[in-house]
Amino acid sequence: MDCVTGLPPGGDRSYNACLVIFDRFSKTPIFLPCHKDDTAMDTALLIWNRVISWTCIFTNIISDRDPKFTSALWTNLHQIFGTKLSFSTAYHPQTDGLVERMSQTLDDMTSIHASTNQTSAILGKEWNPKLPQDSLRQDLAEINPTAVGFKGMLEETGNYAIRCMEDSFSYAKDKWDKSHATPDFKVQDLVLVSTTNFNNIKGCKKLKDSFEGPFVIKALDRENAVEVELSEELSSKPYISSELDKAI
Fold it and tell me: What keywords would UniProt list here (predicted)?
């Protein structure tokens, strides 16, 4: 999940942010209007009333290091539910690329709406669909399975989807591992940090060095992230991807 901020106020409650939730299993996106200054309790109640009430308790939540997601209340709440909390690393799409891509899609949709003040359905069809079947041009074939058969069909479909996703993840991992070696960084190592994702570096962007440093590694955070003691100019991102170069 990710919280998209910087949106113009809208709706009866002047919402100015949107909580984006993406189900990795069903590939279902959920967009929940919220406020930028919502607390951890506000976010927990929003998810409980709008998502968990009609789905189930999450087994794993991947989010950024927003203060509401690292607070004691949020952590203790999900310890009670048995939900594992995983935190993404900046500029590491292998961790939360799905929700980041969906957030970009949300930006595209809201920018289109902001420029026309109309939905795409109104502009294209001159009406807004109320229900999924309202947007269908022809009736689908009628299926009337028995209760037992329906349950079995759902289980078979779910198991097949799990197998397909496992095969896809395995293929992507093998392809990535062939060209990316696991770094062997240690605390106090000197490393060079790529400047690709830093926009606060002074001077001409095209003429800036590809790497800055060397900097000292302060701590190791899982396999794909390290905490680096950056200079004041780059200090906005202390947790960065472990794809660094060792200083010679």
Answer: RNA-binding
